[in-house]
Amino acid sequence: MSTDLDGVHRTVVVVGGGQAGLSTSYCLNLAGIDHVVLERDRPGGEWRNRRWDSFCLVTPNWQCQLPGFPYRGSDPDGFMVRDEIVRYLEDYVKSFDCPLVEGVTAVRLRRREGGGFRVSTTHGELTADHVVLATGPYQVPLKPRIAERVPADVVQLHSSEYRNPDALPPGEVLVVGTGQSGCQIAEDLHLAGRQVHLAVGSAPRVARSYRGRDVVAWLEDMGYYRRGIDEFEDADAVRLRANHYVTGREGGRDIDLRAFARDGMRLYGRLTDIRDGLARFAPDLTKNLDHADAVSEGIKDSIDAHILARGVDAPAEARYVPVWTPGTEPSEVDLSGITSVVWSTGFGRDHRWIDVPVFDGRGYPTHERGVTSCPGLYFIGLPWQHTWGSGRFCGVADDARHLVSHIASERRSGIANGVPWIAGTPEDTFPSDEYWTATRTVA
Ligand SMILES: Cc1cc2nc3c(=O)[nH]c(=O)nc-3n(C[C@H](O)[C@H](O)[C@H](O)COP(=O)(O)OP(=O)(O)OC[C@H]3O[C@@H](n4cnc5c(N)ncnc54)[C@H](O)[C@@H]3O)c2cc1C
């Protein structure tokens, strides 16, 4: 497709060609709704450009359930490494007639007088009746402003810039944050023989397997991944929760920070300040490690209850026993031996280019299952948009299907964003529930 987009009109413009945008495109195709997908880079760019060399999924491959393209490889219980994930997305694009335009950034979104939207891009301005924003859950690398006080000779990277231990200068490394990225990067450095100092936050952990199966398989059976956000008392808090840490590396295993400490990694509480060449930490290491273990053991309790209630035949398994405890908590470390800091402190979103009043006071889009209060404007791929899987490979298909059904029914009803719609277009052929159930069967 030509990249001169000036004056082009599409029924739907999808912004973002990651798994969420591509899934939406697949469903729009099935519904016969004309559209275009704008991608500033290439599909898979987030995985290709912002993940480290040893990166792999923490969710098993069988959970990769993009619509029409479930994982079909030979290792459903394994965990795709970075380049395999990129290939999975590239193959997805090739698997259907995706009207994808690469190398185009949407720079402004406005409502159009009389209905619909104007999408200004680096390659001209196009118009659309509907816009689906699939620009990703993790857009802007976040670093605390403490970073400004790190001595100038210490190399600083965000987790999205970290590649491998050899790319850091020789010497000790301070990793800040123990979400998925921080724990896995700390492990990567630790396995390479680097002295790691790890500032441990309050993220929970989950065991890789329990009573003979991957914990993800148990939780899937227990319906955890299908629980809607509306079932939780405090949706906002659920959406802000840190992910549980665990790894898919080398076939998958627990991440046990206590075991790392036993083997020489230095653990601290939350980083609170950097001043006078010292990094200072809160006295919460014991609490954070205990909390992570308690969450993990609590998940095992719920699996035990499920096994009991269903009479499942599963082997018994002894519970976790801490292999190390902090003793006196170190409150500071001298930065003179530390040559690099890896900030694993998460990501934010940048929606400033979206000139439509659908955001709350914190800049979070107000929506119901991706459908905003502005008719015709949708989000997809937000963490916990509807379920745990919304921002992941396992749940985005359901959300794409929901949004496209919504778009199709809006058009069938003859009112799409205030624009009268001419009846009799192929949306009537939108696939049945049976179709979707069939395509979601694990390969
Ligand atoms: C460290 C890490 C580990 C993860 N591990 C897992 C895992 O094990 N399993 C799992 O299921 N999920 C995992 N995820 C979550 C999720 O699957 C990924 O974040 C995934 O990339 C989300 O897909 P997406 O399509 O919503 O967004 P993205 O992949 O971020 O895609 C958004 C796309 O939009 C494009 N874009 C953005 N703005 C514009 C614009 N203005 N104009 C044009 N294009 C634009 C970007 O270039 C990008 O290609 C992980 C995430 C992270 C950060």
List keywords for this structure.
oxidoreductase; Auxin_biosynth/cation_transpt; 443 residues; alpha/beta; five-stranded parallel sheet; 21% strand; MSMEG_0569 family flavin-dependent oxidoreductase; globular; CHP04046_FMN-dependent; 10 helices; binds flavin-adenine dinucleotide
Give a written overview of the molecule:
The chain has 443 residues and is an alpha/beta fold. The protein contains ten helices and 25 strands. It has helices at residues 19-31, 45-50, 82-95, 180-191, 215-221, 235-240, 257-262, 285-310, 396-412, 433-439, and strands at 9-15, 35-39, 65-66, 69-70, 100-102, 106-111, 117-121, 124-133, 140-141, 155-158, 172-176, 196-199, 209-210, 213-214, 266-268, 271-275, 278-281, 332-334, 338-343, 347-348, 367-368, 371-372, 377-379, 415-416, 419-420. Helix 1 (19-31) packs parallel to helix 9 (396-412). The longest helix is centred in the C-terminal third of the chain and has 26 residues, at 285-310. The protein starts with 8 loop residues before the first strand and ends with a helix. Mean pLDDT is 91; it is low at 416-443. Bound molecules: flavin-adenine dinucleotide. Residues 15-21, 38-41, 45-46, 57-59, 105-106, 134-138, 180-181, 381, 391-394 line the site of flavin-adenine dinucleotide. Keywords: Oxidoreductase. Pfam families: Pyr_redox_3.
